[in-house]
Amino acid sequence: MPCMVGDVILQLGDLMLLRFDFGMRFVKEMAMFKVTRIETTPFEGQKPGTSGLRKKVKVFIQPHYLQNFVQATFNALGVDRVKGATLVVSGDGRYYSKDAIQIITKMAAANGVRRVWIGQNGLLSTPAVSAVVRERVGADGSKAIGAFILTASHNPGGPHEDFGIKYNMENGGPAPEGITNKIYENTTTIKEYVIAEGLPDVDISTTGVSSFDGPEGKFDVDVFDSTSDYLKLMKSIFDFPSIQELLSSPKFSFCYDALHGVAGVHAKRIFVEELGANESSLVNCVPKEDFGGGHPDPNLTYAKELVARMGLSKMHSEPNPPEFGAAADGDGDRNMVLGKRFFVTPSDSVAIIAANAVQAIPYFSGGLKGVARSMPTSAALDVVAKHLNLKFFEVPTGWKFFGNLMDAGMCSICGEESFGTGWLSGLNSCSDHIREKDGIWAVLAWLSILAYKNKDNLGEGNLVTVEDIVRQHWATYGRHYYTRYDYENVDAGGAKELMAHLVKLQSSIDEVNKIIKGIRSDVSNVVHADEFEYKDPVDGLVSKHQGIRYLFEDGSRLVFRLSGTGSEGATIRLYIEQYEKDSSKIGKDSQEALAPLVEVALKLSKMQEYTGRSAPTVIT
């Protein structure tokens, strides 16, 4: 083989060459593989939800199960899009991910994909995958057309827990319904899949390119640094020096808990190596296949260690909590923000970021084009949008609905109550941005706001705290008392009966109000009730049955929704919200303020009767 200029080549027998490229990374060249066709039969229930396909590991490890879904996806994308393409394959590192990466890589080769990009150790947060798809350019000028993301998000991991897979498109966002419907249709009729025989497992622990020969030419696997592209994007958005000044101040202390998810990889590089935080500020930042036996959902129930450190534990008293704390979920797209002995609701968080973005975040200095929230999220963002004269959109749950608004240049900041916040620069049509929720982005946004508010008093004067910022926001915009009750893994039949009962009640608002007054006379009347329906302003598609709403004349809301993010059973989410404009009444305890509405919601829905549950699994 001729030696390329600048390369160093070593011959190791007849099968393999090791080449060092200009970056001195290993470039391995190996013998030819062949394409093998494997007969298979369909599996029931491979319909992707809003976040892909999620099942227990024991389901995914069945022979042909993962392969069927992957082949169905390639078939849905079409030969013209797949052949010669570049794909990203990575995830949150949960159990079975390493095996799945090797299977998908071999199937990609057999389907004519030219190259596969894999984050080192198979680790890329969901927002980092989006950034890589949108931003990364290969040494040969290649760009990714999409990604297989291996995650079940905030669900537990391990041999007896959850696994998931979803496909993201060339815009870095989740596949639209047109594609996911095709994938599902293909899973119901699939008869065979193709896989590369003779293609060895690739070492994903070391960065470098492995190059192989196949029936249609070269096939490369590029294992690359998991954080570099994402870090570059974050540095283009935020003022890192100002955040670094904040983190270096003796007045300010910081704690970040990755719950043993993939965000831990990015956290050390960004917060410690780039921003100068002490490594002791990081908690549970080593990714583990089972998330350390925990539940990687950043809320007050599951992020116990962070909650205790921040002085919010009922079981443990922390004498000197940090000024700022944050947590991430398994795949790094969700976040929770805490102040010293103070919890920030996700709905307040996105509203506060939107209210302060132009002043505190350089990337938004030119202004916001619009803001959006998911329907169950509180109306705190609505009030900010009205006050700042911004376009506002209310969409169904599912990040893909935000994607259309972003691609059309209609939305700059968006968020949903499931501890997810996202963004779009909106500066011009070719600016760089992602199409996923982004937990670390939200943390950097909060640190930027804190840095801006404290730019003149890090030396002298009192620190403006997280609690100060939230309470000032309430004084300006009013407070939306808000909570969510999750009933996880309830009987699916009972859950459907509960929802049907709530829909039937909506036929007579007068009757609903009679029932409510019989429960609590101090609760306002319902003025409107419906099943939320959304017509996309970009493509005109209509999404029906997106949640059951009861809207009260004082601005309060009850929302009931079945979640599609669990792997078995059903999850009922109940959202309870009350708006208070009177500044003298915004300091109440949230659960105390919402107690009357909670009682109405549980009795109106007959929650215990239909689910058999006397209490929710999680309250946030």
Automatic annotation (TrEMBL):
Keywords: Carbohydrate metabolism, Glucose metabolism, Isomerase, Magnesium, Metal-binding, Phosphoprotein. GO terms for biological process: glucose metabolic process. Pfam families: PGM1_C_vert_fung (PF24947), PGM_PMM_I (PF02878), PGM_PMM_II (PF02879), PGM_PMM_III (PF02880). GO terms for molecular function: magnesium ion binding; phosphoglucomutase activity. It catalyses: alpha-D-glucose 1-phosphate = alpha-D-glucose 6-phosphate; alpha-D-glucose 1,6-bisphosphate + L-seryl-[protein] = O-phospho-L-seryl-[protein] + alpha-D-glucose 6-phosphate; O-phospho-L-seryl-[protein] + alpha-D-glucose 1-phosphate = alpha-D-glucose 1,6-bisphosphate + L-seryl-[protein]. Its EC number is 5.4.2.2. Gene3D superfamilies: Alpha-D-Glucose-1,6-Bisphosphate, subunit A, domain 3, Alpha-D-phosphohexomutase, C-terminal domain. Its cofactor is Mg(2+). Signal peptide: none annotated. The keyword Phosphoprotein applies. SUPFAM superfamilies: Phosphoglucomutase, C-terminal domain (SSF55957), Phosphoglucomutase, first 3 domains (SSF53738). It is an enzyme of class 5 (isomerase). InterPro entries: A-D-PHexomutase_a/b/a-I, A-D-PHexomutase_a/b/a-I/II/III, A-D-PHexomutase_a/b/a-II, A-D-PHexomutase_a/b/a-III, A-D-PHexomutase_C_sf, A-D-PHexomutase_CS, Alpha-D-phosphohexomutase_SF, PGM. GO terms for cellular component: cytosol. PROSITE patterns: PGM_PMM. Residues 46-193, 229-338, 347-456 form the Alpha-D-phosphohexomutase alpha/beta/alpha domain. The keyword Isomerase applies. Belongs to the phosphohexose mutase family. Monomer. Catalyzes the reversible isomerization of alpha-D-glucose 1-phosphate to alpha-D-glucose 6-phosphate. The mechanism proceeds via the intermediate compound alpha-D-glucose 1,6-bisphosphate. This enzyme participates in both the breakdown and synthesis of glucose. This is phosphoglucomutase (alpha-D-glucose-1,6-bisphosphate-dependent).
